[in-house]
Specification:
Strand content: 5-15%
Structural class: alpha/beta
Shape: globular
Length: 266
C-alpha cells in the first residue's frame, strides 16, 4: 500500500512470519532506526490517519506527541526474520565496514548533502584499529566500478545487499553480519543496533575530517550519539560486545514488543 513497506524486505518478512496472504498492508512500517529524542522533525510522517507500525515504546510516545495517534508497536522486522529463520549469532571472521551513504530520495528532497567519503582514509583508519580480512558493504548507490576498484587496490572485498526494494535485502545483510567477527560503521545507524543485538564486536568510526566524509547531521542524531557515548564509550573507541550494548539494541529494536504469529496477523 505504501512504497516504504517494501524497503529492505520488511513487508515480506512480516507477511511470511504471520502467514498472511493479502497483497496490501493497511498501514506504514517503520523501515529504519529513528533517534528517540523529542525533536520536532523526528518521526515526522506525511500522512497521519493511517496506522504506523513502529519498533519501540519511545517512538510510539514520540509519534503521539507529534500528532500521529494511530501507531502500533510491533518491534523491528529484523527480529521477526531472526526468529522465523532460527538465526543465532556466531563468532565470525574478519571485519565488515559500512561507510555512510546518501539516498536518492535525499538528493530529490534536498534533505542532506551527498555523503561522500575518502576511501583511502577509511581503509587506513580501519586497518589501524581492527583485524582483517576486510570487506566494505556498499549501499547500492555507492556500488560503482570506481569505488569497487579503489577498495580492491587495498586488497579489500566489496559487497552490496542490493536495491532497498530487494525482498532479500535484510536476509543478505544479516548473513553478512553473522559471518563477520567485527562490524564497523561510520555513523550511528540501524546496522549498529542489528550488530549489537547479534552480540558482534561493534564499533563506530566517527565521521570527521580524518575520513573526509561530507555530511550535514541533524542535531538530534548528534544528541543521540552523545547519549550512546555516555552509555557505551567503547563503541567509539575500540569495539563493543557487552551486555549493555545488547540491551540498548533490544530497546531500540523493540525486542519486548515482538508479537506472536497470531497477534501479528491480527
Amino acid at each position: 500500500m505504501f512504497i516504504d513497506n517494501y524497503y529492505y524486505g520488511h513487508r515480506k518478512i512480516l507477511k511470511d512470519f504471520s502467514d498472511l496472504n493479502q497483497s496490501n498492508l493497511p498501514g506504514s512500517i517503520q523501515h529504519g532506526w529513528i533517534p528517540s529524542l523529542p525533536d520536532k522533525n523526528t518521526g515526522k510522517r506525511r500522512i497521519k490517519n493511517i496506522p504506523f507500525y513502529c519498533w519501540n515504546k519511545k517512538i510510539h510516545h514520540l509519534s503521539m506527541r507529534n500528532g500521529y495517534k494511530n501507531n502500533i508497536i510491533i518491534g523491528s522486522p529484523f527480529i521477526y526474520y531472526l526468529i522465523k529463520n532460527n538465526i543465532s549469532t556466531k563468532k565470525g571472521f574478519g571485519t565488515l565496514v559500512f561507510p555512510s551513504h546518501s539516498n536518492i530520495e535525499d538528493k530529490i528532497y534536498n534533505l542532506y548533502e551527498s555523503q561522500d567519503f575518502d576511501i583511502q582514509s577509511l581503509v587506513k583508519e580501519t586497518e589501524k584499529k581492527f583485524n582483517g580480512p576486510f570487506t566494505a558493504c556498499l549501499y547500492y548507490t555507492q556500488y560503482t566500478k570506481k569505488n569497487i576498484q579503489a577498495f580492491e587496490k587495498n586488497n579489500w572485498k566489496t559487497i552490496c545487499c542490493g536495491n532497498k526494494l530487494n525482498d532479500k535485502f535484510l536476509e543478505i545483510l544479516t548473513s553478512q553480519i553473522v559471518k563477520h567477527e567485527i562490524i564497523v560503521c561510520t555513523e550511528v545507524c540501524t546496522t549498529v543496533f542489528y550488530s549489537l543485538f547479534l552480540k558482534k564486536k561493534t564499533a563506530i568510526i566517527k565521521k570527521n575530517n580524518d575520513l573526509n566524509i561530507n555530511n550535514v547531521e541533524h542535531d538530534y542524531v548528534q544528541k543521540c550519539e552523545t547519549n550512546l557515548k555516555k552509555k557505551i564509550p567503547e563503541l567509539f573507541t575500540s569495539n563493543c560486545n557487552s551486555n549493555i550494548g545488547y540491551n540498548i539494541a533490544c530497546n531500540e529494536l523493540g525486542f519486548n514488543y515482538v508479537k506472536s504469529k497470531e497477534d501479528l496477523k491480527q
